[in-house]
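Data availability (excerpt). The following record was deposited with the supplementary files.
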Amino acid sequence: MASKAASSGEKPTPAHRASVGAAPEAGGGTGHGRIVSGADGAGCLDATQLAALEQAYRQWVDQAARPAMRLSRQRILLVFLLIRYTGAKLSEALALDTGADVDFERGVLHLGGAAGEPGAREVQVSGLLARELRALLLGPAFGGAQGPGLGLDPGFVRRKFYELAQAAGFAKRQGGPEMLRKARAVELLQGNVPLPVVQAMLGHVTPAPTSAYVSFSPDDIRQVARVFLEREAGRGSSARNAFYGKVQALEPGDIQARVELATLDGLRVEAVVTSGSVQRLGLRPGRLVAAEVKAPLVSIQLRTPGPDGAQAPPASSQENVYPGVVEEIRVGGLMAECVVRVSEATQLCALVPAAWARARGLAPGDAVWVLCGACAVVLHVD
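Predicted structure:
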């Protein structure tokens, strides 16, 4: 059922233009080449701009003058939401089989072909998005029918994407399907979603985690994605200072226990929790666990080469020590907020005395050590 009638009606409310978002690398670069390569010209939209564009799509649907026009526009909105939140290619979104490719209960979409085919993958979405997709796919916009393909012309969909981007105040290229897919990847990476999870969502070949002594199955990857996406949908707390990994070692004690995590991007995180917490959380080797540490409990030290040119970790009682590069710093009257990238997908935020930061001329690009104690790490089981 090719839709050709969604081109008239009121225009969306213009959105504010903002600076182009980019995913910084640990070395201070501007992009994760394996996922968001080839950026040129206008660049992709950042998270704020994506939210403004989504609002423009929804207003465009609400402003439809006739019921038939509203249904036609809902079909375009559906395709936008699929690409916006799953990073699907336009061809993958339009080929979706509403009967076989969507598991609404689990919030999982099958994209890129049948299971086992090259490029085929399962993509996790939030519960909120799964409910909206159900309402659109099984509602009057598609006649309540289930079957292969959405029945939309790719050229027509692409034109509507360009028109809506321009009406919202952005360059038409920024609203194209390929740039929306890239923007979703950047948004996830900037939200500290582990790199292998983003690669799995977009259908890139997922490299083996850099940790040689722990493995993550496809089910593990989907569970990690589900946790991050549910937090994103609920507008939860910042992802900074948050790790997600698998329990690698557990040393019980009478009162406290030591827990060692291995994260998807190869970091090692050590935590000390009470023995009661071990029982209450059901901690055991192989269990997926979230770990968080508050910024005031994180400290930093400048990294300086030794006599032999090597940068050995500082002598410290802190169990968790990571080399990193300063990405942002805000200096206030008493304290300074310093954001450090310690891996391709992980940022840590530290609050340090402003006088200390000023005295050392701390600035973006500086090489530092980030330190936090095992007792400062809080574990959660989602």
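Summary of structural features: Residues 1-42, 207-214, 235-239 have pLDDT under 50 and may be disordered.
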